[in-house]
Amino acid sequence: MSPDPPVAVGLGLNSRRLHDEDAAVSDEAAAIALAGLPGIGPASLSHLLAGAGGPSAAWEAVRSGRSGRPGKVADGTPSWQVAAARTDPQRCREAASERGIGVTWLGRPDYPLRLASDPFPPPVLFWRGDLAALSGRCVAVVGTRRCTPAGRRLAWELGADLASAGLCVVSGLALGIDGHAHLGACAAGPHGATVGVAASGVDVAYPRRHAALWERVVERGAVISETAPGGPAQRWRFPARNRIIAGSCELVVVVESHSGGGSLLTVEAALDRGVEVRAVPGPVHSSASEGTNQLLFEGAGPVRSAADVLDALGGLGAGRRPRSRPGIRQAGSAHTPAADSPAGHTPAGPEPATRVQAQDRQRAGGPTDRRSAEVLDALGWEPTSLNRVVVRSGLPVSQVIESLERLADHGSVAEERGWWQRIG
Amino acid sequence: MLAAVSSATLLGVEGCPIRVEVHSGNGLPGFSIVGLPDATCREARDRVRAAVLSSGFKWPRHRVTVNLAPTSMRKAGSCLDLPIALAVLGADGQLDPALLEGVALFGELGLDGSLRRVAGVLPLVGACAEAAVVVPLACAAEAALQRRARVLAAVSLRQAALALDGQERWSEVPKPPPASGRESREDLSEVRGQPLGRLAVEVAAAGGHHLLLVGPPGAGKTMLARRLPGLLPALSREEALEVSRVHSAAGLGLPPGLLVLEPPFRAPHHSASMASLIGGGTTQIRPGEISCASHGVLFLDELAEFPPSVLDALRQPLEDGSLTVCRSRASVRLPADCLLVAAMNPCPCGGDGSPGGCRCSEAARSRYALKISGPLLDRFDLRVGVDRPDVGDLLAEGAGPGETTAVVAERVASARERARARGVGCNARIPGGLLDELAPIDQTARRLLELRLRQGRLSARGMHRVRRVARTLADLSGSDAAVSEEHVLAALALRSEPFASARGAA
Ligand SMILES: [Zn+2]
């Protein structure tokens, strides 16, 4: 149960009056109150709503004790009936709308169409921002929190390019790949949108250092969750959240995943639903690409750039192909994605046809001297320690450092905690 | 009757002169010591009495009172046994008290009257103004290093008493074996596949910069650290005396030549107590490992395993080059002028800590990173990643043995000479306010640093440290010109943020 549920406690004085009144509890208010019952999950909430025929009736059933769940003496969890008696649904609703939180449930016209046909849809859905973002064409870009600079950069590019192509980029608001996919989408032009699916309540930013990212996602789309407002990110909520990501998209792209990583749960959920899964190939020695390379081995289609995603979706207008951008320095990304949001991105710009051309252009403009080439060769595409670059290149330390810094300024390499990697 | 002799006691690493006064008078036979003796010192009663009797002398049939002056100071250790015994004999008339004038005496007595070595004879002798000192033969050579007073050596109480009276000869003071040149330690040329680590120890030695080595187990962090003392300049005679005094006071064994000539290398385990690391103790203030490492290297392996209280206590001494231990009656200054080299794993999983290559959770990484406080991490001018040498890389062409310790030490020595010529002991000690004067940087280098500051990738304090390291790099390259961009870039790379993402900006 949430530590700070939006329930009206301490109304014992006029509880009788309260009972008289809530005979007329609205469906919205009842839906919010039901989702906030102690220990309630999507399965039992679905059961309640289906049994009663609507939120209002379900609330009445719980309050009167006709449906419900006994409390647990061990941890002091009250029974639903007791909890319901302490809750003022109207107050819950007011609190939600004060925080800009909307609510919908299965069967309502504003409930997202794709999710409505899901085998295991969220019975009640909370959102901040614009829920209509989900009614467009949606692609999930997901991956590990423990990502490499190259993975982070690709996630950002996919987010930006897919959003520019008019798609809605869905992800899980987590650190690493997820966060950068959202950030990229936020940085794109006005066409696209991004939706973050949260495990906690839509007003409880998790992880906390992504609070600023949440607000940007709300502005550029929506943050949605089936957890009641104020609810914490409990462990079991994450796999449940992943099914919502899979269920709201036409395609899931995994950028980087360790073997056995959490994003593979999203893959499972997608495959269960017949949603296509694609993966970004990575170096065979990179732990962060073990999961994705395995997916490719098992037959998932590879994604090298947004163009591959658009092809998989059956092609969108050529005019909406992703553009290239000059090299973006992401070195020293010690900060939250919000802090290191690549500022070099300019939404308006020329639109070359493919990424290959873009890369050529980038190289042509980059340092082309022999020493840079030697350093790049020694570096490779995996995170490499400065020491190893020096060993492999056979150049003096100071020359290697100078080359790397110049390449980093140009966006061809990135550094994190003393590890260097080619990114473009 | 009354007799008095001179001696000294040890306070930290300094000797303090003591007068031992003995009165033998009427009253019930008894033996008491006053003047703040510590437990070992109080036990002198029993040792002295037994030693006097077994040396063929008589124990006075009077009331014997020993006073240790000045009375305000705590007297520690057993080195006062010999002066007390001889003063007792003097007060009892078995020895002419006049013979006890003009000499200082030190020595622990065995119950059979033999003289045993005492710790810290070097600072003890140094504290006395007398023209001659009587010491146990076992530490006579050490006492002679002081070159201040004539050293009279004896093996027993009886010999000392008779020799003072001219009836017997003093033992001959052994000459310490001549100090051989620099010991052949592990050589830097054995370190292969670690160009960055090699550069880091060279810079640390040349500029006196504290160094943090971050790398997985087996990467060779200890190997690098152990080769650092060999790169430091040999100790001057004054430094050698100071280090030897500290080691003597700490009860460490001295080298065969008795003078510590090589920069010391101390590597205390993380389970060592606060007192043994920092110094102090309950009764006797003893120098800790940080003082024993003075003019040398203090190596802390597994830095994250040291208790936070100990790491906290290290910070001030490292910055000041000395520390002060306060007890109720005394406050003692101990040297702490050492180069700190610390080693730690990049994260708890034992992996190499590469982005995406580590199996720790974000929370576990953060917890691990927070074991090293920001202020302590800041003390390291050099923070370098060390990785396990890759077999393929080692076999690659051109990976022959690297430069030897002798070659690098020569470069270090001339870099240190450049720093000294500017009037600073070593670059790590240049005050922030004097950087522009003593270590100016050129325009491009300044622009680079300002850019890093604006980007938030460098703090103002960090910038000072980077500038000092850059100066050392310039000194090593033989340049006296203003620090250039090349050196600043290298200094920045030698000060990476090993835990950046784990610490976060939240
Ligand atoms: Zn790890």
What does this structure look like?
The complex is a heterodimer of chains A (424) and B (506). Chain A is an alpha/beta fold. Chain A has three domains: 1-98, no CATH class; 128-320, Rossmann fold, CATH 3.40.50.450; 355-422, Orthogonal Bundle (Arc Repressor Mutant, subunit A), CATH 1.10.10. Chain A is built from 18 helices and twelve strands. Chain A has helices at 15-21, 27-35, 42-52, 55-64, 80-85, 89-98, 113-116, 149-164, 177-187, 211-220, 237-247, 263-272, 290-297, 306-312, 355-365, 370-379, 386-393, 397-409; strands spanning 102-105, 124-129, 138-142, 168-171, 193-197, 221-225, 251-254, 276-279, 301-302, 384-385, 413-416, 419-422. Chain A has a nine-stranded mixed sheet, with helices on both faces. In chain A, helix 3 (42-52) packs across helix 4 (55-64). The longest helix of chain A is centred in the middle third of the chain and has 16 residues, at 149-164. The radius of gyration of chain A is 24 Å and the shape is elongated. Chain A starts with 14 loop residues before the first helix and ends with a strand. Chain B has helices at 39-42, 44-54, 81-91, 121-126, 140-144, 157-164, 195-207, 221-226, 237-249, 274-278, 289-292, 308-320, 362-369, 374-379, 391-395, 405-421, 435-438, 443-454, 460-476, 485-493, 500-503, and strands at residues 2-11, 14-25, 30-34, 63-69, 103-105, 108-109, 115-116, 132-136, 150-154, 211-214, 265-266, 279-280, 286-287, 297-300, 322-326, 331-335, 339-344, 382-385. In chain B, strand 8 (132-136), helix 5 (140-144) and strand 9 form a beta-alpha-beta unit. Chain B has a five-stranded parallel sheet. Chain B is of the alpha/beta class and 506 residues long. Chain B contains 21 helices and 18 strands. Chain B has a domain at 2-164: Ribosomal Protein S5, domain 2 (2-Layer Sandwich). Helix content of chain B is 36%, strand content 17%. Bound molecules: zinc ion. Zinc ion is lined by residues 347-349, 351, 358-360 of chain B.
